[in-house]
C-alpha cells in the first residue's frame, strides 16, 4: 500500500475518534450507568448495521437481475406469488423478533441505569438560571452544607441526586457518568450513578433554559472515599476568618456593598439566598457555572462586571471603587 494511502487511512480513523475521549463523553464511560448506556448503544448500532447491509445487498441484487417485462403482465404467476408471500412472511417474523429483541435489550439496560440503592449518598440539586445549587444534606444540620456548580463524590459508591428547579426546566447531564434527567419546578426527579474511576467530569445543562443556557455547566469531581470524607469534613466548617487587615475590610465591604443580600457565607452575617453559596469559593475550580477557571484574575473580572462575562445573568454590575474591589477579592480568595 503506498505511504499516502496508509497515511490517509490513519488520519481518517484518528480524526474521527479524536472527539470520543475526554471528560465529557458518552463514548468514554467512567460510570456504571454510562457503561451500560454505551453497551446498549453498540447492540442497537450493530443490529441496525446488519439490517442496513442486508437491505443494500438485496437491493443491489434486485437491480442487477432485473427481469424483462412479461408479455402478459396481468397473467397470474401462481408459484411466483406463493414464493413472494413466503418471503414477506419470513421477513415479517424476523422484523418482529428484532424489534422484540431490541426492546428486551433496552429494558434490561434500563434496569441497571435506573437501579436504586438504599445506601446511596444523597444530594439535592436545584437548577437556577444559570447555575447549580448543590446541597449535601445529612440527618444532623451540622453535617449539612451547600455549595454550587461543583459536585464532589466518592468513587465506587452510588450517588443519588434529587433534582428540582427554582425557575424554568433545566436538565442534568454528565455524559461520562450517566444519562440525562430534567429538573422541574414542583416535582422531584431522581437519578443515581456510580463513578468507577477518580477524575474530573464535566456536566452541562441539557435543556434550553434562557439566555445563558450554554454557560450553565458544572464539574463533577470523583475522589477516593477517604479523600472525599476529608473534603466533606472541611466543607462542613464555617468560612475562614480573614487573616489580615485588607481581608477584614473586604468582609465588611461584602456586607456594606450589598453582596451579602444575595450570597451566603457560613459563619458570617452574609446570608443571601439568591446567588451561589460562597463559603468556600476559594477552593472551587471554576466560577459562574463553569464559564471561567477560578483564578484571581477571573474572579476580579467577574466582580467588576459580571454582565460583561455572562450577559443577562442575575448578578448585577455592582458600583465599586477599585480599592473596594481589591479588598473584596482578597477576602473571597481566602475562603478556601
Ligand atoms: C442581586 C443578587 C446578587 C448580588 C447583589 C451579588 N451577586 Fe454575586 N451572584 C449572583 C448570582 C445570581 C450569581 C450566579 C450567576 C451565574 O453564574 O449565572 C452570582 C455569582 C457570583 C460569584 C461566582 C460564584 C460561583 O460559584 O460561580 C461570585 C464570586 C459573586 N457572585 C460575588 C459577588 C460579590 C463580591 C458581590 C458584591 C460586590 C455580589 N456577588 C453581588 C447574585 C448576586
Ligand atoms: Cu439550565
Description of the structure:
By secondary structure, the chain is of the alpha+beta class. The termini are far apart. Helices cover 41% and strands 18% of the residues. α5 crosses α9 and α7 crosses α9 (322-333). 26% of the residues are buried. The strands form three sheets. A five-stranded mixed sheet has the order 3-2-1-5-8, with no helix packed on it. It folds into two domains: 24-54 and 89-224, Cupredoxins -  blue copper proteins (Immunoglobulin-like); 245-333, Immunoglobulin-like. It has helices spanning 3-18, 32-64, 78-113, 225-236, 245-256, 259-262, 296-304, 306-309, 322-333; strands at residues 121-128, 131-136, 145-148, 150-154, 159-165, 170-173, 181-183, 189-193, 199-205, 217-223, 286-287, 292-293. β6 (170-173) and β7 (181-183) form a beta hairpin. Bound molecules: heme C and copper (II) ion.
Amino acid at each position: 500500500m503506498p505511504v499516502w494511502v496508509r497515511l490517509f487511512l490513519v488520519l481518517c480513523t484518528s480524526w474521527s475518534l479524536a472527539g470520543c475521549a475526554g471528560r465529557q463523553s458518552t463514548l468514554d464511560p467512567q460510570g456504571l450507568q454510562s457503561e451500560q448506556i454505551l453497551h446498549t448503544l453498540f447492540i442497537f448500532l450493530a443490529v441496525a448495521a446488519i439490517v442496513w447491509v442486508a437491505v443494500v445487498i438485496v437491493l443491489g441484487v434486485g437491480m442487477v437481475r432485473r427481469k424483462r417485462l412479461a408479455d402478459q403482465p396481468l397473467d397470474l404467476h401462481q408459484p411466483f406469488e406463493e414464493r413472494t408471500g413466503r418471503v414477506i412472511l419470513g421477513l415479517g417474523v424476523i422484523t418482529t423478533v428484532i424489534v422484540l429483541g431490541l426492546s428486551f435489550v433496552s429494558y434490561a439496560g434500563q434496569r441497571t441505569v435506573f437501579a436504586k440503592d438504599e445506601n446511596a449518598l444523597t444530594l439535592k440539586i436545584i437548577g437556577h438560571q444559570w447555575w447549580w445549587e448543590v446541597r449535601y444534606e445529612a440527618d444532623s444540620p451540622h453535617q449539612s452544607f451547600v455549595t454550587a456548580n461543583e459536585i464532589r463524590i466518592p468513587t465506587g459508591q452510588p450517588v443519588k441526586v434529587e433534582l428540582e428547579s427554582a425557575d424554568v426546566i433545566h436538565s442534568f447531564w454528565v455524559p461520562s457518568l450517566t444519562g440525562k434527567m430534567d429538573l422541574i419546578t414542583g416535582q422531584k426527579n431522581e437519578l443515581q450513578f456510580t463513578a468507577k474511576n477518580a477524575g474530573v467530569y464535566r456536566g452541562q445543562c441539557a435543556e434550553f433554559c434562557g439566555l445563558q443556557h450554554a454557560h450553565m455547566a458544572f464539574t463533577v469531581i470523583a475522589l477516593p472515599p477517604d479523600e472525599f470524607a476529608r473534603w466533606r469534613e472541611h466543607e462542613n466548617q464555617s468560612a475562614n476568618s480573614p487573616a489580615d487587615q485588607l481581608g477584614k475590610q473586604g468582609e465588611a465591604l461584602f456586607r456594606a456593598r450589598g453582596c451579602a443580600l444575595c450570597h451566603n457565607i457560613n459563619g458570617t452575617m452574609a446570608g443571601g439566598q439568591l446567588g451561589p453559596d460562597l463559603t468556600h469559593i476559594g477552593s472551587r475550580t471554576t466560577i459562574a457555572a463553569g464559564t471561567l477557571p477560578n483564578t484571581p484574575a477571573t474572579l476580579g473580572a467577574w466582580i467588576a462586571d459580571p454582565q460583561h462575562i455572562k450577559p443577562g445573568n442575575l448578578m448585577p454590575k455592582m458600583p465599586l471603587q477599585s480599592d473596594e474591589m481589591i479588598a473584596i477579592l482578597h477576602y473571597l480568595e481566602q475562603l478556601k
